[in-house]
Amino acid sequence: ETGATTDEGTEGGGEQLQGEIAIDGSSTVYPIAEAVAEEFMLEQPDVQVTVGLSGTGGGFEKFIAGETQFSNASRPIKDEESQALADAGIEFTELQLAYDGLSVVVNKDNDWVDQLTVDELKKMWVDNGTAVKWSDVREGWPEEEIKFYSPGTDSGTYDYFNEVILEDAQINKTATLSEDDNVLVQGVTGDANAIGYFGYAYYLENKDNIKVVPIVNEAGEAVEPNAETIESGEYAPLSRPLFTYVSNAAIADEEAVAAYAQFTLENAAALAEDVGYVSLPEEKYTEQLETIEGLK
Amino acid sequence: MKMALTAVNSKKKPEMMEQEERLVYNTKNLNLWYGDHHALKNINLGIKEKDVTAIIGPSGCGKSTYIKTLNRMIDLVPGVKTNGTIEYRERDIFSKEFLVEELRTRVGMVFQKPNPFPKSIYENIAFGLKIHGIKNKQIINETVEKSLRGAALWDEVKDRIHEPAYGLSGGQQQRLCIARCLALEPDVILMDEPTSALDPVSTLKVEELIQELKERYSIIIVTHNMQQAARISDKTAFFLNGEVVEFDSTDTIFNSPADSRTDDYISGRFG
Amino acid sequence: MKMALTAVNSKKKPEMMEQEERLVYNTKNLNLWYGDHHALKNINLGIKEKDVTAIIGPSGCGKSTYIKTLNRMIDLVPGVKTNGTIEYRERDIFSKEFLVEELRTRVGMVFQKPNPFPKSIYENIAFGLKIHGIKNKQIINETVEKSLRGAALWDEVKDRIHEPAYGLSGGQQQRLCIARCLALEPDVILMDEPTSALDPVSTLKVEELIQELKERYSIIIVTHNMQQAARISDKTAFFLNGEVVEFDSTDTIFNSPADSRTDDYISGRFG
Amino acid sequence: MENTARVKSEEMVGRIDGRLMKNKVIKGIFLAATAFTTIILMVLLYRIISQGAPYLSWDFFQNFASRRPEQAGIKAAVIGTIWMMSVVIPTAAILGVGTAIYLEEYAKKSALTRWIQMNISNLAGVPSVVFGLLGLTIFVRVFGFGNTIIAAGFTMALLVLPVVIVASQEAIRAVPNELKEASFGLGATKWQTIYRVVLPYAIPGIATGSILAFSRAIGETAPLIVVGIPTFVAFLPSGYLDQFTALPMQIYNWTSRPQVEFHNLAAAGIIILLAVLILMNSVAVWIRNRFQAR
Amino acid sequence: MKTPNQDVSPVQQLLEKKYNGGFLNRREKIIPIVLFIMAAVSVLTTVGIVLTLIFETVTFFKDVSIVEFFTATEWYPFSNTDPVYGIWPLVLGTLKITLIASLFAIPIGLAVALYLSEYASTRTRKIMKPILEVLAGVPTIVYGFFALTFITPVLREIFPSLELFNAISPGIVVGIMIIPTIVSLSEDALSSVPEPVRHGALAMGSTKWETASKVIFPAALSGILASIVLGVSRAIGETMIVSIAAGSTPSAALDLTSSLQTMTSYIVQVTTGDAGFGTTIYYSIYSVGFTLFVFTLAMNMLAQFISKRFREEY
Ligand SMILES: Nc1ncnc2c1ncn2[C@@H]1O[C@H](COP(=O)(O)OP(=O)(O)OP(=O)(O)O)[C@@H](O)[C@H]1O
Ligand SMILES: Nc1ncnc2c1ncn2[C@@H]1O[C@H](COP(=O)(O)OP(=O)(O)OP(=O)(O)O)[C@@H](O)[C@H]1O
Ligand SMILES: [Mg+2]
Ligand SMILES: [Mg+2]
Ligand SMILES: O=P([O-])([O-])[O-]
């Protein structure tokens, strides 16, 4: 399988490229980026690829400063950031790499939650000044205070959750925030009244210790996150795309960057699944490959 | 040399023969090893109350070792083995029942280099009382004054007893260390070359002090200065290679020693 | 006491009057202050070549200060002010052109406490040569042997010259420090109480060495031991309170001093 | 007089048992504290070792980072750390010892000297993140080094510099004055005395103090994060202006991954880091023993 | 200059040549200058830190009122609607962690140091100190997970009401982390009190404890204080342990059982997070960094003042 992509990937006639490629940005996207870089360097050992994890915003900061060619993001670029890029004279292209299904999870001993709607999520998570008990969410649930575990307010994951669930309302101030998703896993595992959310990969890895909550989508079905439901878009609205942004000038000027962009799109599907994310539908990659072709 | 010493010695006040022969320390067949090194060999020595007993001998002969054994400071050296007994006022100092803390309270020690505590003059002297649970301010104040007077230091420092002891000159520091002992009203004071780090003036002062102290305390003093031994002591023990060669009245030792090695040493033929 | 000293002194070999009067050091109107403290007061002293000149006096009288001024080690003390001149071989030691490094190379110094470097015996002696840029192995080897012989130490250490100097006894260390000076073939050797930290045996050895060295070097020695001054020196200067009270041949100073203060000090009436 | 003295003495002697008891109890408490600390640290070590030891293999040393835990290795991080330390150690050692010599041997006791001294002890307490911010602004941006070995190395060197200075100062101050006098007395110049007498004597102290500081530089994560050191680097640097990654960065990254295998790899990485620390400390102990055999 | 009867030795010849050839040594003049420049680096570092922090801090205060910064009791920069920048919760978080760490580490650290210097055999001391020193270098992420996955569960067994993220567990672990620093430096200070002073006390019949507490400890006080200051500074500056085990909820509550955020963990959160360059949030890390710098500066000054007051010379 990889053999096939190799031939296409080095279509310059199997020539060996040289150069340096600096990638930085989202820690959520990092595993995919690392996998791509790892595979790419097997084929092009003379191209030195580095991947950092300064976070989506930190990545853009470097991208704007012209220090990186690719900037990984777990959310779409913000207006201020594209403005700053425009000011710096850097044109860019957005590439979607994969989906991540934000997984809402509860403690294993939680036997009452079977599914949640977006409204229920919002009711729980938005700060309305009163402490929320499970019984406030649905009749018959225990009269226990809910313990919230959320990624830090400065993360792409939080950003997305904010967009689709909180809709810019203040998150419940009793929520425990942590930058490290493993820490959140620990939180939910250790607390019977806990609820939390984080990247699908973290749920997948810990599925024996925590329970994922099916979320009711617009069609009214309660859907559990898994590879199919995320890819097909059934798991909504909590599946989100992951991006990398690439500098157009770099693609045009540096063969290695163009080859890398191409390689990324060709292999993202397989590699994303390898590291616990979900691939996009095939045609999305093809479309983007064409865009790249046009920039060369 | 010998002549000179005699001259000095003759100035000493006559021995008090009338006093009954009470021993503060009685050492019997004491042997001591540092690891394999046999440092004290079969020492037998009875030390009389209210005497100044000088211990002389060439470097390395075991003077410091012996004096440190008397208050068991030698315990602090790892790997030391002893046998034989030392009796302090008829109690075996090596026995379990005789706590070193008690022994050291009754037997004060003055070291070669003045070693005051890095505290004020006052606190240096109050230290001993405080650790022994004496808290009464008045008793402490009185004792501080009494001890400083006893060490002939009071007049020099009375205006600055709350200043650091390290501001004193070497000789004053040494007298402070003596005062520190006196505060506990010891029975015996051990001194290991107490003046060897001092200048002549300070040495003289300390020697004078020793002369006064002997009225009330038994004093055992190690010195490598034979003139000093001659000047201040009643009895002298001559150590050589870990053995007591001769122990007698200072007069005898310096003027008509029984052993030829003593004579050789005294007259500067070696050591 | 005086009698004793005379007795010792008389053993000294007669002064060499035949030698012409050449001065190594000529001190003129020297004054020195530590901050406000006037430590040396109008010193005038001419020191003769190949003499052993002893400097005596009670503690704090300025002996060390004076000797440290002679090779400008006093420069290391902050806040020292001097006026007057000291000429070394007719060159003003305070002048800009006379570098202290040269002065100290020509004038060796031995300190109160033996202070060998924490290196091997060999390296201790080679040190002076190396800092002066002498790299020739053969010269160094020869000099090491010659200096150790000169310091009467060769026989004792020849089998272990590459072992650490700290393994030597105090007296050997002090002789090593002397050997270290000799390696630079100095003209004058200054000694500040070189035996006061030593035991009697070692003291004797060092004294003997000084007697030998005076054949070839001019020696200035500070001592608080009057017997020592009497035993080894040709001339003696008596310092008191930063002043030179009397400077004369040792015989005169010890037997018929001109100044009554000298007499008082020599005979132990103070100090 | 005689009498009162005796009585007092008896009174004091009577209290000895109580005092000894107190001594014993306190000794017990101290011993317990020591045992407690040791045990906690042993538990910490045990957890790391039992988790990481199975992952230590030749491949682990040979391989670059990988998305597959079983292929992932620590080569880039180890080599990167070595490169970084090759900047940190000489920079901090030369600046630190130089500063210490200046302050101890040359500086006059002036207000300026006191101010420099105070400044150094303050710097020792400045959090490492703040040094990270400094490195980011000065070395990465202003000097334009980017997030390279030299930028990270200088940042870390500044971070540990105060500790190196203080340790060196103490070591230099401990050189007996007599030795300096001996050297001056032989006509040595000031620098010769410093170079040939003071420094050799002070080296064990300088080395032990500094190695502790360098151990800290090896284990610090926060400044590297702030400076923006990349994590995935699948090549070895060939110069000081190359990018690199370092052990704590790699460990940090692995601990934050979802897969438990990566957490185990992190533990294996920590074992390596501890091994490096132990090695460095052994060097310190060796230096101390070697030079103190005088 | 030579006496005539003496044959001129090679050594003197060489020396003679050296001094006649002039002994002008430029090196001796240049070296102090070079060394001074080295000493200036640490001053420049401080200047660099202050400048770095102050410029961005000033920019920050263009957006946020300085009054709000010091008086508001909420730190909520990420709110899209109305962000609040009141430094107090972060300062409080730092104080809580520092306080718990100090309460834990200072007594234990000093007890261990006293044990090692006054009671333990030389051998024990020789083994223990390097071990502790190695542990001083364990990366703090390791301690962080130790807090979260070991200490916290143990504490929660004992106090079930303790939340997963709290001040106590990371506080204790920060304490554990700084114990080696305190032990190592205090032990140095204690054992550098000269042996004769110790013997002086023992010879008066004092027990080891009396000697240690009344003589040795006061004599070593300034060194001990320095070790404490360094340890506490590290507690104030500690980042990873707190980020992992204390959550990241800036909280103005005095309660120790719930999640909090410290100044340092905020800085790391933002640098690894999402904040865009040039945003107020981005500048806020410099203002927090500056506050932190002032904080440690104040503590160091205080400590120096104290140590000067209690210094006992020996
Ligand atoms: N801690 C020790 N370990 C091993 N040997 C020791 C120790 N202390 C002393 N010795 C040895 O024991 C012997 C007697 O030593 P001691 O210190 O009692 O001699 P001294 O008569 O006091 O000599 P000095 O006049 O030099 O003080 C010497 O040979 C010495 O080397
Ligand atoms: N560094 C210094 N600063 C200030 N005063 C000093 C210093 N060194 C010595 N003095 C003072 O100068 C005077 C002379 O001191 P010096 O050391 O020369 O005396 P000394 O004759 O050598 O005495 P000793 O026999 O005790 O060695 C003394 O009063 C001393 O207190
Ligand atoms: Mg002795
Ligand atoms: Mg002197
Ligand atoms: O690293 P982030 O994906 O949370 O920006």
From TrEMBL, chains B, C:
ABC transporter domain ranges (all copies): 25-266
Molecular function terms, GO-annotated: ATP binding
Keywords, sorted A to Z: ATP-binding, Nucleotide-binding, Transport
Origin superkingdom: Bacteria
Gene3D superfamilies the UniProt entry points to: P-loop containing nucleotide triphosphate hydrolases (3.40.50.300)
Coiled-coil residue windows: none
Signal sequence region: none
Claim: Transport is one of the keywords in the record: yes
Entry annotated with the keyword Transcription regulation: no
Protein name: Phosphate ABC transporter ATP-binding protein
Pfam families: ABC_tran
From TrEMBL, chain D:
InterPro entries: MetI-like (IPR000515), MetI-like_sf (IPR035906), Phosphate_PstA (IPR005672)
Keywords (A to Z) from UniProt: Cell membrane, Membrane, Transmembrane, Transmembrane helix, Transport
Biological process terms in GO annotation: phosphate ion transmembrane transport
Protein's UniProt keywords contain Cell membrane: yes
Subcellular location per the Swiss-Prot or TrEMBL entry: Cell membrane
Principal place of residence: membrane
Pfam families: BPD_transp_1
A molecular function (GO) term: phosphate transmembrane transporter activity
Location of the ABC transmembrane type-1 domain: 78-283
A GO term from the CC aspect: plasma membrane
Transmembrane segments: 29-49, 76-103, 123-143, 149-172, 193-215, 262-287
Membrane topology: Multi-pass membrane protein
Similarity comment: family membership: Belongs to the binding-protein-dependent transport system permease family. CysTW subfamily.
Protein name per Swiss-Prot or TrEMBL: Phosphate transport system permease protein PstA
Taxonomic lineage from the root: Bacteria, Bacillati, Bacillota, Bacilli, Bacillales
From TrEMBL, chain E:
Cross-referenced CDD domains: TM_PBP2
ABC transmembrane type-1 domain span: 91-303
Topology term for the membrane: Multi-pass membrane protein
Superkingdom field: Bacteria
GO molecular function: phosphate transmembrane transporter activity
Localization: Cell membrane; Membrane
Gene Ontology cellular component terms for the protein in this record: plasma membrane
Listed transmembrane segments: 33-55, 87-114, 134-155, 167-185, 215-236, 281-303
Family the UniProt entry places it in: Belongs to the binding-protein-dependent transport system permease family. CysTW subfamily.
Matching PANTHER family: PHOSPHATE TRANSPORT SYSTEM PERMEASE, PHOSPHATE TRANSPORT SYSTEM PERMEASE PROTEIN
Described function: Part of the binding-protein-dependent transport system for phosphate; probably responsible for the translocation of the substrate across the membrane.
Protein name: Phosphate transport system permease protein
Organism, scientific name: Domibacillus enclensis
Biological classification of the source: Bacteria, Bacillati, Bacillota, Bacilli, Bacillales
